[in-house]
Amino acid sequence: MPKVSRDGAPQRQEAGPVVDLRDDLDGYTVTFTSLVEDIDATPFMNGLPDDRCQCPHWGYVIKGKMTVMRFSRQATPSIRRPATSQ
């Protein structure tokens, strides 16, 4: 099974406060995105259908929070931490 890590991602792109490390695996793009400051990405979507990104996204928020604008509502997904045994 192919895999990639943040340290091994062969492609790097920096755009202002956003740093993307990525690789393509079996038809999927795997990206490690870091934001060095809070941003509102809404202006980057202007001109796309419905002014929204059309790509499906799966992932994890490791630190901080992310607000997602859905077609019908705004949502802030909760960050779940694994339970620890006592």
Describe the structure.
- The protein is mostly beta strands and 86 residues long.
- Helices cover 0% and strands 29% of the residues.
- It is built from no helices and five strands.
- It has a three-stranded antiparallel β-sheet, with no helix packed on it. A two-stranded antiparallel sheet has the order 4-5.
- A hairpin with a 2-residue loop joins β2 and β3.
- The protein is globular and about 35 Å long.
Concise account of the structure shown:
The chain is mainly β.
Q: How many whole angstroms does the radius of gyration measure? A: 15 Å
In total, how many beta strands?
5
Kindly state the mean pLDDT as a whole number?
81
Coarse shape: globular
List the helices and strands and how they pair.
Blueprint: E1 11-15, E2 18-25, E3 28-35, E4 68-69, E5 74-75
Antiparallel strand pairs: 1-2, 2-3, 4-5
List keywords for this structure.
86 residues; mainly beta; 3-stranded antiparallel beta sheet; two-stranded antiparallel ribbon; 5 strands
